[in-house]
Amino acid sequence: MKFFIDTANLDQIREAQALGVLDGVTTNPSLMAKEGITGKNNILKHYVDICNIVDGDVSAEVIATDFEGMVKEGEELAELHEQIVVKIPLTKDGIKACKYFSDNGIKTNVTLVFSAGQALLAAKAGATYVSPFIGRLDDISTDGLNLIDEIRMIYDNYAFDTQILAASVRHTMHIVNCAKIGADVMTGPLSSILGLLKHPLTDSGLEQFLADYKKGN
Ligand code: E4P
């Protein structure tokens, strides 16, 4: 299972990269705005900065909503760095753009996916990644993990290459449950990754080992 971090914060990306378990980064316009990154040139530079920190794929989202605009913007994003994956919303024009990018060797992440039918369309259009938002489904009393399960079944039925990128991950149990179901990738905040470290028995066990060592030395 690949671990992506879902942020545009360079310090957090560096911290996750230093841990040695990071496989990529996802961003979106809201995450860029949260870091105060505005204006086209600053945004493009920020994507390159992120690519220079991590080794893996970095999702950069298009702002255009029409096919021609998405293609123009996506090609410009893909030119920035070989690690860039063009992130496209799951709309009619988005699916057309996904197919265009797939035919032209540009990696894609189809985002804002909330149903198995949408995920099927993304796979048919040759998406590299599909991003079902599990946290946002949980927020409206709908089981986000169930969607991951459905997509896994459909993709396995037809051996689709599209990777399931569980997005809108909010906490450690989302990660563990996505791993049990077989999501290919998860993207979440740094806190969700660091949360996997925690167990009180690890802490108390280590404390005891160190205390016992000190007794004999
Ligand atoms: C996915 O790529 C999105 O950036 C993200 O996971 C959305 O998460 P949120 O629902 O916590 O905003």
TrEMBL record:
Provenance organism: Avrilella dinanensis
Keywords on record: Cytoplasm, Pentose shunt, Schiff base, Transferase
Subcellular location: Cytoplasm
Record function comment: Transaldolase is important for the balance of metabolites in the pentose-phosphate pathway.
Cell inner membrane recorded as keyword: no
Example of a GO MF term: aldehyde-lyase activity
E.C. no: 2.2.1.2
GO annotation, biological process: carbohydrate metabolic process; ketone catabolic process; pentose-phosphate shunt
UniProt cross-references to PANTHER family, sorted A to Z: FRUCTOSE-6-PHOSPHATE ALDOLASE 1-RELATED (PTHR10683:SF40), TRANSALDOLASE (PTHR10683)
Catalytic residues of the enzyme: K87
Record bears the keyword Ribosomal protein: no
Catalytic activity of the protein: D-sedoheptulose 7-phosphate + D-glyceraldehyde 3-phosphate = D-erythrose 4-phosphate + beta-D-fructose 6-phosphate
This protein's name: Probable transaldolase
Pathway: Carbohydrate degradation; pentose phosphate pathway; D-glyceraldehyde 3-phosphate and beta-D-fructose 6-phosphate from D-ribose 5-phosphate and D-xylulose 5-phosphate (non-oxidative stage): step 2/3
Entry-linked Pfam families: TAL_FSA
Cellular component aspect of the GO annotation: cytoplasm
InterPro entries: Aldolase_TIM (IPR013785), TAL/FSA (IPR001585), Transaldolase_3B (IPR022999), Transaldolase_3B/F6P_aldolase (IPR004731), Transaldolase_AS (IPR018225), TSA/FSA_arc/bac (IPR033919)
